[in-house]
User: What shape does this take?
Amino acid sequence: MATVLLVRHGRTTANATGVLAGRTPGVSLDQTGRDQAARTGERLAAVPVVAVVSSPLERCAETAQAILERQRVAPTSLVEPDLTECDYGQWQGRALSELAAEALWSTVQSYPSAAVFPGGESMTGMQSRAVAAIRRHDAAVEAERGPGAVWAAVSHGDIIKSILADALGTHLDLFQRLEVGPASVSIVNYGANRPRVLATNTVAGDLSWLAGSAPPGDAPVGGGAGTDTAEDQRPRIES
Assistant: This one.
């Protein structure tokens, strides 16, 4: 029952100009993105993160570094290729406004489980590799550091949305209902019986409650008592 913080990278130059960066090399955070990553690093500084696992792309590496350098005790730092961006194939590098006119666009929006990017990968394949990577690292963290361990995975919007959909038991065709903004933090605890999604798309709020004891294995009947965090400091869900 380790807990994973799913962190999307901060805003990039491609995000700001409406271009689908995909796996294009050299796409870095812009100044807004660097500020966002720094704020997320400050939020996570209240949590003893034992490992930071990142997509290999520059924008994620930069965001991961903002987390690593604010931790009091240096976490393990790893790069995970299976957390890299979706392979958008021939869509990569094109303007979103142009792609919206493609026939495949409506499939991506409404039936992503049927979407295969020309010259790239399917969205089901994307979800399968990403979920497998998260569960593999989560099991390794728990085995090495115990059930109360917290670790961070730094990845991309569609990747994190697909992981959250799996944790929620939601079909991939509904994953576009989820929002995952730049430098946002979503929180999943993989219990013995089922995953529990503790928060999604948070960009503000105190996370020090994660430094406490491991969550119980079963969901509390009636909702439970929550954390000890003061009311005005509880993490906000923002969509």
About this structure: The beta strands are 3-8, 49-54, 76-79, 150-155, 185-190, 195-202. The CA atoms of residues 27 and 58 lie 6 Å apart.
